């Protein structure tokens, strides 16, 4: 019997904010959410897995675009002991650019009034070492655009969850966390 | 009953080199390694799957940063045919973004640093088939800050490979590596 490569992680709890927001954990562990300014998934990282894939489909309320940033959490508390450093690149038609920002953990890079989607690969959040993650994004504005990012978090705390915040407006969609079996 | 789409693959054997190195295969197939100048996995590609996903967290064991390279191998021998691996890279660090194409006797899958941790996901297409192989990474490495360095690569030898070797350009790496087959 082959060992499954991906295991869906069911959050132990979730929390959300935003005008008229709602969020719920589905039977198999994915999270459906609507009109959220913030969304927290707790208890999704454990000692069973080192690395994770987080997949989201997203729809925002801001026509000019917004993004969701992430802080790692421990028992629901966002972690600020270390430094989040984000690097991204933006390929928009024939223009490509890059930038770096500190104190921000870019997660879902552009959310607009078109549906978008992203996969985030997270390496070692529950290990007592620094965490890194990498976002591969698809952004619907202007008929397709790539805004990928990567983040380093310098603290070595063992984190069991994520807290996502929008830069503007609210976000709806579905998010699922998978552990890479090892 | 849904059919599992992604299977964790257990190497038939592994080999590592480097001063004080260690490597081991976990119960389910994940490979934990420490202080490795080279790490080779054998028997991970087979006729059961065409395409694969390799996931690795790693850190370089020397101050600064280096390159993390890869060669395909079969029956325990790396393929190092000159210029057979051609890689297209996309590099983003602060406001600098650049691209390049290089032909070598190896391909590249990430940078590796000591200041922060590093990780990559690598898709490998058809390594076990007797046709050219292609790969694509999505990677993050730390250096002093976050750096993105992605690669799309081809390998022009129509050889059936059952494994691969990863190695830093210099020094040694520590981490965890897992190989998954995509059910067809």
Task: Name its key features.
heterodimer; A: 182 residues; mainly beta; ten-stranded antiparallel beta sheet; six-stranded antiparallel beta sheet; 60% strand; globular; B: 184 residues
List the helices and strands and how they pair.
The complex is a heterodimer of chains A (182) and B (184).
Chain A: E1 3-4, E2 6-9, E3 13-17, E4 22-25, E5 31-36, E6 38-42, E7 51-60, E8 66-74, E9 77-78, E10 84-92, E11 95-102, E12 106-111, E13 116-123, E14 131-138, E15 146-153, E16 161-166, E17 171-180
Antiparallel strand pairs in A: 2-17, 3-6, 4-5, 5-17, 6-16, 7-13, 7-17, 8-9, 8-12, 8-16, 10-11, 10-15, 13-14, 14-15
Chain B: E1 6-9, E2 13-17, E3 22-25, E4 31-36, E5 38-42, E6 51-60, E7 65-74, E8 77-78, E9 85-93, E10 96-104, E11 107-113, E12 118-125, E13 133-140, E14 148-155, E15 163-168, E16 173-182
Antiparallel strand pairs in B: 1-16, 2-5, 3-4, 4-16, 5-15, 6-12, 6-16, 7-8, 7-11, 7-15, 9-10, 9-14, 12-13, 13-14
Could you explain the architecture of this structure?
The complex is a heterodimer of chains A (182) and B (184). With 182 residues, chain A is mainly beta. Helices cover 0% and strands 60% of the residues of chain A. Chain B is an all-beta fold. In chain B, 0% of the residues lie in helices and 60% in strands. Chain B is built from no helices and 16 strands. Chain B has strands spanning 6-9, 13-17, 22-25, 31-36, 38-42, 51-60, 65-74, 77-78, 85-93, 96-104, 107-113, 118-125, 133-140, 148-155, 163-168, 173-182. In chain B, the strands form 2 sheets. In chain B, strands 1, 3, 4, 6, 9, 10, 12, 13, 14 and 16 form a 10-stranded antiparallel β-sheet that branches. In chain B, strands 2, 5, 7, 8, 11 and 15 form a 6-stranded antiparallel β-sheet that branches. Chain B starts with 5 loop residues before the first strand and ends with a strand. Classes of the chains: A mainly beta (182), B mainly beta (184). Chains A and B meet through strand 1, strand 10, strand 11, strand 14 and strand 15 of A and strand 1, strand 6, strand 9, strand 12 and strand 13 of B. Strand 1 (3-4) of chain A pairs antiparallel with strand 1 (6-9) of chain B.
